[in-house]
Design a protein that fits this description.
The structure holds two protein chains of two kinds.
Chain A lengths: L8 H7 L9 H14 L2 H10 L8 H32 L6 E3 L1 H7 L13 E4 L5 H10 L2 E3 L4 H10 L6 E3 L5 E5 L13 H7 L1 E2 L6 E3 L2 H12 L8 H15 L5 H11 L3 H15 L5 H8 L7 H12 L12 H16 L2 H13 L4
Helix pairs in contact in A: 2-4, 3-4, 9-10, 9-11, 9-12, 10-12, 11-12, 12-13, 14-15
Chain B lengths: L2 H9 L3 E5 L2 E7 L2 H10 L5 E2 L7 E6 L11 E6 L2 E2 L4 E2 L3 H16 L4 E10 L2 E6 L6 H9 L4 E4 L2 E4 L6 E2 L5 E4 L1 H9 L9 E4 L2 E6 L3 H5 L6 E10 L6 E4 L2 H11 L3 H18 L1 E7 L2 H9 L3
Parallel strand pairs in B: 2-4, 9-16, 16-18
Antiparallel strand pairs in B: 1-2, 1-3, 4-5, 5-6, 5-7, 8-9, 8-10, 8-11, 11-12, 13-15, 14-15, 17-18
Helix pairs in contact in B: 7-8
Classes of the chains: A alpha/beta, B alpha+beta.
């Protein structure tokens, strides 16, 4: 297989939107298929629009950009509505309610919400108030989704979130977190520090978002611990937009590096800075890069991880797959589980998953 | 295009078939699919290999034993098999259902409504209805009696301007409708009947030539008629309250939720501007006669 046959045009266009000026019809076709499969049609459309390139896109691909943007804005409208419902349901508890991930980018009006697609809403509440929050949400119509005893125990005892909740009438999904990594994971960012530093959201009394450094570190911890990479390139693009936005603020980079130590997230910071810079050409100051390099894994693992991310953080479309992509995705799947639980517990969990009948 | 060239493209890099605003690159080595396309899409434009294709699909036999033992067919979009395989003789219906799925789940540039659309005198007639209401039968009867068919299944509405865009494709008929239309429109060209599909027996009908030739002429909906086949009742055309017409359209739309407020406005304007009726019938003659009075 030659290099051309696995060319990832989504990655190229995220990195340098101007490259679409040179596209042939077959390049456009490849880009649309790869972007659709990566959930990045609307993101690309927004980035092209920002550079006044959208108007010159040929009619064929332009229709798909329009379709993607229509879908993304419907999802964004829905997320805003859901956040209002969630805030209403939890208001009487007056607990710190922190929006996470895409939900936070959208409500905070950050560039990382540009063309962002959604499948659920993510919030964080203090662990000691989780039961109250769940009860209040149930009263307002959110019901748990994973009904086997094992799954319920898996989430409630080991994970950093409740089993996903679904609203019985609107069918929307809600993830209620109490931490940003599983309780059983190797790295243990303390949630109370995140909650202390959270910043109130303008115009939405009672709602907060993580501080800029924490938001970036959470995005990195999530992406580089994930077992499943079908949204990997989208998440990397979120990270790129977050870093470009916050990176312009004085003192941000020093805070970011400092904060990664306080939160036990130095390794995800290393991966995050290195991979956004390598793949999407994100501007990262050399001092920040140099400091975070201190948390890099040792040779030869360091080189192996670079290779794995390079193979995995691509459009999942088959035209973007490289010969080793399947192996890289499997290795990262195993790695994610390895980081998530101690070995014996992991072995038991995998045994249960392998032997039970599909629910 | 010669049958040989058609087969070569379907077997090879893909036939880039234009259906209204959509170009689909289709690959298949199944004779039933090759024959189905050469019969039903004989009048359609085929784009050259450098043209932009909206979707890339294939209908093939799966690898492994099922290729030989009670064979199956698999529909793939972009190389991913998105649906459960079907029995081996259902290749062409599966292609048609797959193409419908591509449009209804991805083409959000349109408000996509589960409805037949026909046109006469520049004005469109919309027949939204759940499966089994006789929508396709009625559509086929009208398509051979003075109306131009834009689609028998998917109304593509422009959410801003409100017009319907044509998506000329074979008309799909089920069970008793097949013989009914054979008798009613002897000039119609039928493909083979495929038995025991998910929807019963299915046969496709080649779209009339003017439906294909005039695919780039949109039309604004002037009539909205909810048909109901009823073996007992005489043909009746009753005015339908606008609110009920609106709610019917909403429940027939595949992507109403995707269009938010714009979708609400588009459908509200459609029922405001169109004459809305409920229509029950059991003889196609009556139906054609009553629809003749329109316009």
């Amino acid at each position: 297989m030659n290099a051309e046959s696995s060319l990832d045009l989504v990655r190229l266009s995220l990195r340098d939107p101007d490259c679409v000026r040179e596209f042939s019809a077959s390049s456009w076709e490849r880009l649309i298929r790869q972007a659709r499969s990566a959930g990045l049609l609307a993101r690309l459309a927004a980035l092209l629009d920002e550079r006044a390139l959208l108007a010159s896109v040929p009619a064929g691909p332009a229709a798909h950009f329009l379709a993607g943007r229509t879908l993304a804005s419907a999802q964004q409208e829905e997320v805003r509505r859901e956040v209002t419902h969630i805030a209403d349901a939890l208001r009487s508890l007056s607990l710190p309610l922190i929006l996470l991930k895409g939900t936070a980018y959208l409500l905070a009006g950050l560039p990382a919400s540009l063309g962002r697609t959604f499948s659920d809403v993510d919030v964080l509440v203090p662990k000691n108030r989780l039961a109250e929050a769940e009860a209040a949400l149930m009263l307002a119509g959110w019901a748990t989704t994973h009904h086997s005893d094992y799954d319920q125990r898996y989430y409630r005892r080991w994970m950093h979130e409740l089993p996903p909740l679904q609203h019985i009438r609107r069918q929307t999904l809600l993830d209620v977190h109490h931490a940003i990594l599983p309780d059983t994971a190797r790295l243990k960012p303390p949630s109370y520090k995140l909650i202390e530093a959270a910043e109130p959201l303008d115009g939405h009394p009672g709602l907060s978002v993580l501080s800029p450094a924490d938001m970036v570190l959470h995005s990195m911890a999530h992406l580089f611990h994930n077992e499943e990479m079908s949204n990997g390139l989208r998440d990397l693009s979120d990270l790129d937009l977050l870093l470009r936005h916050f990176g312009a603020r004085p003192g941000f980079w020093e805070q970011l590096v400092e904060r990664s130590k306080e939160l036990d997230l130095e390794r995800p910071l290393y991966y995050g800075l290195r991979q956004t810079q390598a793949i999407l050409d994100t501007p990262v100051p050399t001092t920040a890069l140099a400091t975070s390099n201190g948390a890099a894994p040792r040779w030869p693992l360091r080189g192996v991880m670079d290779l794995l991310w390079a193979h995995a953080l691509r459009s999942p479309h088959r035209t973007a797959r490289r010969p080793m992509t399947g192996m890289a995705l499997f290795a990262l799947y195993v790695r994610a589980h390895w980081l998530r639980m101690p070995p014996v517990q992991l072995a038991c969990h995998l045994a249960v998953k392998a032997t039970r009948r599909k629910a | 295009m010669t049958p040989r060239a058609l087969r070569q493209q379907l077997h090879g890099t893909g036939l880039r078939l234009r259906t209204g605003p959509i170009v689909t690159s289709i690959r298949s080595r199944l004779d039933a699919v090759v024959d189905g396309i050469s019969l039903h899409y004989a009048g359609h434009a085929v784009e050259d290999a450098t043209a932009f294709a909206d979707f890339s699909v294939s209908v093939e036999r799966p690898a492994g034993l099922r290729r030989w033992i009670s064979p199956q067919v698999v529909f793939s979009i972009d190389g991913d098999a998105s649906f459960a395989p079907l029995p081996g003789d259902q290749g062409f219906p599966m292609l048609e259902w797959g193409l419908n799925w591509c449009v209804s789940s991805h083409c959000h540039q349109f408000l996509v409504v589960h409805a037949a659309v026909l046109e006469r005198g520049g004005k469109a007639l919309l027949l939204p209805a759940p499966s089994g209401s006789g929508k396709s039968t009625l559509c086929a009867a009208l398509a051979f009696n003075g109306w131009r068919v834009l689609s028998d299944e998917l109304a593509l509405l422009d959410p801003r301007q409100g017009h319907a865009v044509a998506l000329p494709r074979p008309i799909s008929l089920k069970n008793e409708s097949i013989d009914l239309i054979r008798a009613f429109a002897p000039q119609a060209t039928f493909g083979p009947v495929v038995h025991e599909t998910l929807k019963g027996n299915v046969a496709h009908l080649r779209p009339p030539p003017d439906a294909v030739a005039r695919a780039d002429e949109p039309a604004f909906p002037a009539w909205l008629v909810a048909p109901r086949f009823s073996a007992s009742a005489e043909a009746r055309l009753d005015p339908m309250p606008k609110a009920r017409a609106f709610m019917g359209l909403v429940s027939s739309a595949f992507n109403y939720n995707v269009h938010g407020r714009a979708g609400f406005r588009a459908l509200a304007r459609l029922v405001d501007d169109a004459d809305c009726y409920e229509f029950s019938y059991h003889r196609l003659d009556d139906a054609v006669r009553i629809f003749d009075r329109f316009g």
